[in-house]
Amino acid sequence: MSTTREVIALQFGNYSNYIGTHWWNIQESSFSYNPEDAPSEINHDVLYREGVNLNKQVTYTPRLLLVDLDGSLKHLPREGELYGNSVKRATDDSAGDPLKKIKEDLEDLSTDVEIVQQPQADKHDFQKDLENPVVDIQEQNYNLADNVETWTDYLYARYHPRTVNIINEYKYDTEKQTFDTFSSGVQLWKTEQFEYDFCDKIRQYVEECDYMQGTQVLFDCFNGYTGLATECMEYLNDEYSKAIFAIPVYSPRNTLFENAGASEKLYNLLFNSYVSYIIFKNIIPN
Questions:
Q1: What are 48's strand-pairing partners?
Q2: Which residues on neighbouring strands pair with residue 66, listed in sequence order?
Q3: What is the pLDDT of residue 86?
Q4: Which residue, 74, 133, 165, 181, is the most exposed by fewest CB within 10 angstroms?
Q5: 185 near 224, Cβ under 8 Å?
Q6: Radius of gyration for the alpha carbons in the chain, expressed in angstroms and rounded
């Protein structure tokens, strides 16, 4: 029987997902697929889980749940790229064009139906090269510091279908925070998406573990994710009573808030941070 003490990772917020993407890319870069190599000193089973996709292929994905706003994924399907069959990613000609089939079916209807097709997001060159077995990405210079729009542009790791959780109530904006207050996060936690669905995903991860040691929580500490993350940590403490490694992060960018002027901006930043620290100080023992 395995004696691995598993950890469940949680990421709340766009900046946290930027950091988390680097973290998971680093983890995967340390994997060795050569059976002749010496055993690694790192036990990747602590943060990773083994599974099987619909094609009966064995997968090895982070034991992770992440949260971001609608519009932040660009090309990445919400169900990830190892499981599921996204319409926009269908490339097998033998399977036909699903959208074309829908249009043909609608032509038989007596009423007029307008189809509004969202333009497909452009893929970063790094992502295109990952799909091209001829290209050696180690030899390329992608200049990621200057031409990345969101964290999915440089994501190398592949996620489980339950990993990505999108908040549909707020739109992702590169210039300003639309999900901007602590109370917004608290209210969002009380919705069905988080109080039931998100908690059920946590439960599924927990039930897969043999000796779960705790959770690793990375969260934006300057916007609405403060309220969402602290509510989640209270839930984890009440439900599982395991160790919580909380990592609040601040974006170095000049943060603008959609519902606040210049004078209210500093207040929002201070209030969001202060309340989150007060709450999780009582959750996480010294």
A1: 62
A2: 11, 164
A3: 46
A4: 133
A5: yes
A6: 21
Amino acid at 271: F
CB 81 within 8 A of CB 131: no
In the chain, where are the structural domains located?
A: 7-83+151-283
Could you count the other beta carbons within 10 Å of the beta carbon of residue 69? 21
From residue 135, give the alpha-carbon distance in Å to each of 138, 139, 145, 150: 9, 8, 21, 23
Instruction: Give the neighbor-by-neighbor strand order of the sheet with 7-12.
Output: 164-171, 64-70, 7-12, 214-220, 243-249
Say which DSSP state 193 is in. Answer: I
What DSSP letter does each residue of 27-71 carry, written as one string?
HHHT----TTSPPPSS-GGGTEEEEE-TTS-EEEEE-EEEEEEET
What's the residue count for the chain? 286
Read off the amino acid at residue 16.
S
DSSP run (H or E) holding 249: strand 243-249
Place of tokens 């083994």: 50
Beta bridge partners of residue 171, listed in sequence order: 70
For range 129-155, the mean pLDDT:
82
User: Hey, which CATH number is domain 7-83+151-283, 3.40.50.1440, 3.80.30.20, 3.30.70.2860, 3.30.420.10?
Assistant: 3.40.50.1440
Of these ranges, 132-141, 181-190, 194-203, 243-252, the one predicted with the greatest mean pLDDT is 194-203
